[in-house]
Amino acid sequence: MNREQFTFLVRKELSGLRRFLLAACSGNDQEADDIAQEALLKAYTASADFEDDGGFSRWLYRIACNCLADHQRKDSVRAGIAPSMA
After folding, report:
1. What is the number of domains present in the chain?
2. Which of 43, 44, 54, 76 has the fewest CB atoms lying closer than 10 Å?
3. Residues of 55-74 as b/e, b for ≥16 C-beta within 10 angstroms?
4. Residue 53: φ, ψ to 5°
5. Distance between CA 47 and CA 78 in Å, rounded?
6. Minimal CA–CA distance to 1: which of 47, 42, 55?
7. Does a structural domain hold residue 44?
8. pTM attached to this predicted model
9. 68 by DSSP, 3-state: which?
10. What is the dihedral of CA 64, 66, 67, 72, to 10 degrees?
11. Tens digits of per-residue pLDDT, 28-40?
């Protein structure tokens, strides 16, 4: 996937991705934007390896969910709360 294709697909998903992250971050728009930025950077870096087997949206949201989980894990460590091993 080239840069133009990536940009086109991201523009279609960006508002929904931001709404999803904003809800997941309890309305904290700065936190949601930080996670979205990290997810988009990771997605762009990996876009050359993207295989359209499940769709771009699903792939992008999986990356965003992983970034969200990483962020929450880091927050819990900073707060002195041990992450659950469920």
Report:
1. 1
2. 54
3. ebeebbbebbeebbeebeee
4. -90, -25
5. 31
6. 47
7. yes
8. 0.81
9. helix
10. 120
11. 999 999 999 999 9
